[in-house]
Amino acid sequence: xxxxxxxxxxxAVLPEEVLKEAADxxxxxxxxxxxxxxxSHRSKVYDDIIKTAxxxxxxxxxxxxxxxxxxxxxxxxxxxxxxPMNLMKNKVADYIVTGQWAKKAWQEASKFGKxxxxxxxxxxxxxYIPDCSDLPISDDADYVYICENNTxxxxxxxxxxxxxxxxxxxxxxxxxxxxPVDVSKYGIIYGGVQKNIGPAGVVIVIIREDLxxxxxxxxxxxxxxxxxxxxxxxxxNTPPAYGIYICGKVFQWLKKMGGLEAMKQxxxxxxxxxxxxxxxxxxxxxxxxxxxRSLMNVxxxxxxxxxxxxxxxxxxxxxxxxLKGHRTVGGMRASIYNAMPKEGVEKLVEFMKKFEEENA
Length: 360
Ligand SMILES: *Cc1c(COP(=O)(O)O)cnc(C)c1O
Known about the structure:
The chain has helices at residues 16-24, 44-61, 75-87, 100-109, 226-231, 241-256, 259-280, 305-317, 342-358, and strands at residues 5-6, 67-72, 92-97, 114-120, 144-147, 149-150, 155-156, 168-171, 188-192, 203-208, 285-286, 297-301, 320-321, 332-335. Helix content is 34%, strand content 16%. Helix 2 (44-61) packs across helix 6 (241-256). By secondary structure, the chain is of the alpha/beta class. The site of pyridoxal-5'-phosphate has 12 residues, from helix 3.
């Protein structure tokens, strides 16, 4: 067996320990005589799996009791519609557009009501986070929406926007569980799990209870109502059962690693290694305003598309894979999620130094 260093933005690297455990349990989960993939989601065994997963997530994030945790399907993208369908009582919402994912969410919300773009960083290719201390928040806005970590552009809010009392909704797909958060500052905090937690197909929605109502937009399908899933404790229909099981294992791994405070420290150390190198390099440079740099997604360029392609090719041959930047921005991007070991980042930087010397 040989494993590479996988810098993919998602689906992304998972802890080896988790993969090994899942492999060990594949044929016979804890004496049940079957794989988790084969068991009823209504069985006692599975009930333990999903309940433990929820409890561990609540512990890790310190989720207040007045929030529900929902394990849903449809990826993060389905939330782009589900959020306005459930929350747009006044049919008005304010969106801060800091990248492709926020833009898609904003465009989708426009189908359901008045979605205002109240700030954007598109003027500089989304390379920074706009000042959100005094935005023109609409008086009748049902919520204010952000994408907290911009997977493609590598920016992250270091401070949440001043929503002037309005409910904050955040897509945290690519920074989920990378550091402690104060859940009580959000109405909804959600993310697809394939970036930092588990297999694609599961989306975790943490939602304040007062936002879960029957008062949704007319025609909202049963499956797209938060209330449906909250009432059924994520078991209204067959959930993405195996994916949730893997998420649960990652939660346990995170607890063992010391929780989110410890992850934050580790992630800061890892990101620093890469950013320090980028800041000192003559060949490579980061593309993001330093104060808004993400700990998870690190885009960089040489300034020469042919050189970028050469780097990506040689890095891949050396076992550092998926370093090609998003198709819309080019260059490179190293995603260094929780499960990327520090050693992976150190070795990548060594490789970059060598490449720089060879191509001086
Ligand atoms: C990947 C990503 C998405 C889309 O996730 P899907 O599960 O593919 O729908 C949305 N938002 C962010 C921030 C992402 O990184």
